[in-house]
Amino acid sequence: MQNKPFFELEYTAEDCKARIGKITTDHGEIPTPIFMPVGTCATVKAVEQRELKEIDASIILGNTYHLYLRPNEDVIKHFGGLHKFMNWDRNILTDSGGYQVFSLQDIRKITPEGVEFRSHIDGSKHFFSPESVVNTQRKLGSDIMMVLDECVPYPAEKKYTADSLEQSLKWAKQASDHFQKTEPLYGHRQFHFAIGQGGMYHDLRKEYIERMCQMEFDAFAIGGLSVGEPTELMYDLTDLSTDYLPKDKPRYLMGVGTPMNILNSIERGIDMFDCVMPTRNARNGQIFTTRGRLNLRNAKHKLSDEAIDPGLDSYASSNFSLGYLHHLIRTEEILGLQLASQQNLAFYLWLVKTAREKIRTGEFRHWKREMEELYEPQK
Amino acid sequence: MQNKPFFELEYTAEDCKARIGKITTDHGEIPTPIFMPVGTCATVKAVEQRELKEIDASIILGNTYHLYLRPNEDVIKHFGGLHKFMNWDRNILTDSGGYQVFSLQDIRKITPEGVEFRSHIDGSKHFFSPESVVNTQRKLGSDIMMVLDECVPYPAEKKYTADSLEQSLKWAKQASDHFQKTEPLYGHRQFHFAIGQGGMYHDLRKEYIERMCQMEFDAFAIGGLSVGEPTELMYDLTDLSTDYLPKDKPRYLMGVGTPMNILNSIERGIDMFDCVMPTRNARNGQIFTTRGRLNLRNAKHKLSDEAIDPGLDSYASSNFSLGYLHHLIRTEEILGLQLASQQNLAFYLWLVKTAREKIRTGEFRHWKREMEELYEPQK
């Protein structure tokens, strides 16, 4: 695969910005648009690695913050990287750890050099710099690495956001330089993504992207959205961002989102997504199906002998009834978490796969409206 | 399979009472000696049904007490029985519910008619009689049903034990009569086992068995052992029991036990076992392997890249390192419970499978001593 380009843009819809493409790394191909299941701590919660393959996951996401703390980067290096540690031979993207550090508002301190924080586990002190998170991700050996940035909280003053922009752009430059100077540790290539911030300010978002795109990165992500702002504002800023992002590189909207967030963002030209929603909601008894969202705890499912999702052929979807899954969730059985998590990830991967098909046939926007009837019906 | 006998005794060792046999029901063959994974609430905790097949489980156990309370017998009847409800097409044995009711000392009341108890979930009042638990197990549709008995607590006075014996034998007769008068509900045959009690008294155990064996049952179990008595006493009473139990019917030692408990009881002529130990201990971070027992939390496993159990080829055993499993257990990841549970059940099923092979080749006692070195080394 050494001769294949990292990203090939295959087709763009005629009636919107939706696109189909392909990312190629040494761990295989990733058709885009794609959803990446979140495997925080070297495991996608309640789902086995072989089950991720069954539902056609081509890439998963690992959280650098969590892996840095447990088991820690040197343990993972000892095992030959994250792929070998968790026995996953497909793609892995790791975030920079910045998002988790900045979410822990109380226990971190930003300086021009980086960010000091305390472990949420034992309170111990740690420091992330633009260079250190490159080093950590070299040790993790992810196929795609992310730069350290400050995820500006919502809401934030314009002055704060503009200052943060300068800081994060400076960090991005340092990260890029450091990335160029360092080598992968395990014989497979690693790619490096920058992250556009700019809070909720259109002009700052635009400026950030223009300046970021002058640096050498394999792709650009959009960060700092889906942090509490109105959904329409998120869509606006996504739309604006993809107007300025280069067409020949993948665009990754970080941490998004609901099924309709994903389809609406695909329509606006996004290629990559990750979100804890499918697995987290599964553990809370909510499943996403091709017939809509279901609350498994609802007594109306008690006697239902319908398959969990007749529209999907995953193990969970097709082998068990809603009534059985209702029982497992009500009795807090671990198998309930397993089956619901498999179902939700199968659904999310079906969603992006179907999006790809519908973009190709020109039916994407029509199909999106059908999904809207299921997932966000107008009152 | 209608013409095959329920049990065929194939071979008995020359140097001990260990035996190989085969149970045949409408849900397939069960080679004996066998271990039955415990699927309390219509699921073996943290293990998928297809994974039970992978590790060659031919029969699992369901708990009538738990299923009666949740989802309840009529819900399961609505789904066409427990096999269909949980999508398991191999064998199921259900206990009578008695053991759970009698373990809840505070909230039950025994009368000659049966036992009144309160639900551990919501405190609601319920009543089990010898006849009612037959009816419940008809609705569950298990391949093997157990009679209601009183599991005499340890220690217990002889007078109490003797009175309980009379009560339980009377109940066994009622259960047998009721079983003869009722029919299976789902088109497959159901078999009915009695349970020998008698506390820790050799003469009462013998009397119980002799009187029980005059009734019409498909097999006889030994109950009320492994309840806190010294291990040697358990072995003695097991030994005595198999001296009096008919050779042409399977013998089931209920709720036993550790790997060595199982091998020592096979040596004394037992054919069937169940125990929560492999799955419960897995969830507490203890695994059983062909190299011995391991505490996964122990820091010494942190950097181990050895397979979980190189001696077994289950998915968990062969695809992941001890270091990875250590990490999953330490971070309380659900996948850790899944893999450890698969490993422990794979080990228990390997244990009885190897026992069968070693009995056939005349090496059973020799091999048992080897396992003793691993599992109960002399100081």
Please give a structural write-up.
Two copies of one chain form a homodimer. Chain A has 379 residues and is α/β, with parallel strands linked by helices. Helix content of chain A is 42%, strand content 18%. The first copy, chain A, is built from 15 helices and 16 strands. The first copy, chain A, has helices at residues 49-54, 64-69, 73-78, 82-86, 98-103, 130-140, 158-181, 202-212, 231-244, 259-267, 277-283, 315-319, 322-330, 334-361, 364-375; strands spanning 7-12, 19-25, 28-32, 34-36, 59-62, 91-94, 108-111, 114-118, 125-128, 144-146, 191-196, 219-222, 251-253, 272-274, 286-289, 292-295. In chain A, the strands form four sheets. Chain A has an eight-stranded parallel β-sheet with strand order 4-14-13-12-11-10-6-5. Chain A has a three-stranded antiparallel β-sheet with strand order 1-2-3. In chain A, strands 7-8-9 form a three-stranded antiparallel β-sheet. In chain A, strand 11 (191-196), helix 8 (202-212) and strand 12 (219-222) form a beta-alpha-beta unit. In chain A, helix 8 (202-212) packs parallel to helix 9 (231-244), helix 10 runs antiparallel to helix 15 and helix 11 packs antiparallel against helix 14 (334-361). The longest helix of chain A has 28 residues, at 334-361. The model of chain A has no long low-confidence stretch (mean pLDDT 96). At the A-B interface, helix 13 and helix 14 of A face helix 13 and helix 14 of B.
